[in-house]
Design brief:
It is built from five helices and five strands. It has about 150 residues and is of the alpha+beta class. The chain has a five-stranded mixed β-sheet, with helices on both faces. The radius of gyration is 15 Å and the shape is globular.
Length: about 150
């Protein structure tokens, strides 16, 4: 049994030692916003926050999250009260197919938390998620827009 604070709620999970955090989130907790992409921590579709750090959950052992705070894309906002990232994503029409976007938003949220006014180079360095539709310029524009609003 492991205890994880998942999206602000302490929960117990009975999982195998080798289960990736992604499968705990999707299959055990039933949260489907975090996506499976490559399974080798390269694409970033599975990005979540563990103790406020962006991690690729497909290769992060669930047992390593014992006693930690895990946040998924479900914590970013809602239809009624969208997070600034969600609003910027809509404004800049970032999603095309949308599959990678939950991981992109979680990576962007971690970047903005650590670097509230990122430069273009900061964004290029931090945003290593893969988007097969090639929405990188729209992602960058959305992040820069949020950074500008945060600095006002």
């Amino acid at each position: 049994m492991i205890s994880i604070n998942l999206n602000g709620r302490e929960q117990l999970f009975d999982v195998e030692d080798d289960m990736p955090l992604l499968w705990l989130i999707r299959e055990e907790a039933g949260l489907r916003g975090t996506k499976f992409g490559c399974g080798i921590a390269q694409c970033g579709a599975c990005t979540v926050h563990v103790d406020n750090q962006a991690v690729r959950s497909c290769m992060y052992p669930a047992v390593a999250a014992q006693g930690k705070q895990v946040n998924t894309v479900e914590t970013l906002g809602s239809k009624e009260a969208p997070h600034a990232l969600q609003a910027a994503w809509i404004k800049h029409q970032v999603p095309q197919c949308g599959y990678c976007q939950s991981g992109m938003m979680m990576a962007a949220a971690a970047l903005l938390a650590s670097t509230p006014n990122p430069s273009s180079d900061d964004i290029d360095t931090a945003m290593t998620n893969i988007c097969r539709c090639g929405t990188y310029s729209r992602v960058k524009a959305a992040i820069l827009d949020i950074a500008k609003e945060m600095s006002l």
